[in-house]
Design goal:
This protein is α+β, with helices and mostly antiparallel strands and about 325 residues long. Helices cover about 30% and strands about 30% of the residues. The chain has 7 helices and 17 strands. The longest helix has about 30 residues. The chain is globular, with a radius of gyration of 22 Å. It starts with a strand and ends with a strand. Bound molecules: zinc ion (ZN). It comes from Thermincola ferriacetica.
Length: about 325
């Protein structure tokens, strides 16, 4: 099952007084019309009985049978969103390569494949985006002002775009390298709940671990790839060479030094997540540590050509 969001072109708030925070439309209460439109039959309590909404999704995003449609209010942007829930059948791939991901703040993703390939995605683009909007919103007279609400809306949209681009890039990379399983850390502990706010008082957006996992899971499933998790215990402090716990090995600037070797600390995390998965799955350990020292770096580049400004971007690999 995948959930799709589309912002409304006709805002129901302008034509209706909707009291609920979410309205669900099941089989008989909606009809998908041609040209990206959907007709909703409203419950008796509303003044209008039917509304027709347009949504912006290209035909290639149409995933199959629509199971239900929801109107959901976001208090963050003060907008109503149309959620279209599709029933999708997923066919998982035959066992292939494994990809392990360490998700973090400085590097939003550090990845390693069981083939030894490694990559890093620095989180700077997202941090910069959050800093910018936080600063601009702080200048507004009130949080309910039109400007503040517009900034919040733009912030959410750009963040969402970034996270979609990130997870799409990771899943495409996985699919292109015959990966059948993507392994991540279990969702718990301080890191998963940590706010960006450690670096300021940016409270509006938490570090988007949950969102990334959710997007990765459904995007991967559509390509037949499973997303599974393993315990995060000691994954950041275990030496890839001697396999000992080495707390003091994490030195300055995200480096890990042990056994006479210097590694990127986040790559060490990904490596250990991979080893833990292989161990739990009863598969032989992967001995490749070469890529840990020099991962391929992928930077997010905003394209500034859209009318709305900094709207879209892609990941590019640096030399
Ligand atoms: Zn060691």
């Amino acid at each position: 099952m995948a959930r799709r969001k589309a912002s409304l072109q006709e805002k129901p708030t302008q034509t209706l007084t909707v009291k609920a925070k979410a309205v669900t439309f099941k089989q008989k209460a909606f009809r998908i019309l041609p040209d990206n439109r959907v007709m909703l039959r409203l419950p008796r309590t509303y003044s209008r009985r039917e509304i027709i909404l347009e949504y912006r999704l290209s035909p290639k995003d149409f995933l199959g049978e629509v199971k239900q449609v929801k109107l959901v209010f976001s208090s963050q942007t003060s907008d109503w969103y149309l959620h279209i829930v599709h029933r999708v059948s997923v066919k998982y791939r035959e066992p292939g390569n494994i990809m392990a991901l360490d998700l973090g703040i400085v590097n939003i993703a550090a990845g390693i494949l069981s083939t030894g390939q490694t990559f890093l995605v620095p989180g700077g683009a997202l941090l910069a985006l959050d800093r910018y909007f936080h600063k601009e919103i702080a200048k507004c007279r009130s949080s309910s002002s039109r400007r503040s609400r517009n900034l919040n809306r733009k912030w959410s949209r750009q963040r969402k775009h970034y996270l979609h681009a990130l997870t799409r890039w990771i899943v495409d990379y996985a699919a292109g390298n015959n990966v059948s399983v993507i392994v991540v850390e279990e969702l718990k502990g301080i890191r998963s709940d940590a706010n960006w706010g450690d670096r300021g008082n940016q409270k509006l957006h938490a570090w988007p671990y949950r969102k990334i996992i959710r997007m990765l899971t459904y995007k991967a499933a559509l390509k037949g790839i499973r997303v599974v998790d393993v315990s995060e215990k000691d994954t950041s402090i275990t030496c890839p060479i001697c396999r000992r716990r080495a707390k003091s090995a994490r030195v300055m600037r995200g480096l890990f030094r042990h056994c006479g070797c210097l590694f990127n600390a986040d790559m060490v995390g990904a490596y250990n997540i991979l080893q833990r998965y292989l161990q739990e799955a009863g598969q032989p350990a992967s001995g490749v540590v070469g890529g840990l020292a020099r991962p391929a770096v992928n930077l997010f580049v905003w394209r500034k050509t859209t009318p709305q400004g900094r709207e879209q971007g892609t990941f590019r690999q640096t030399a």
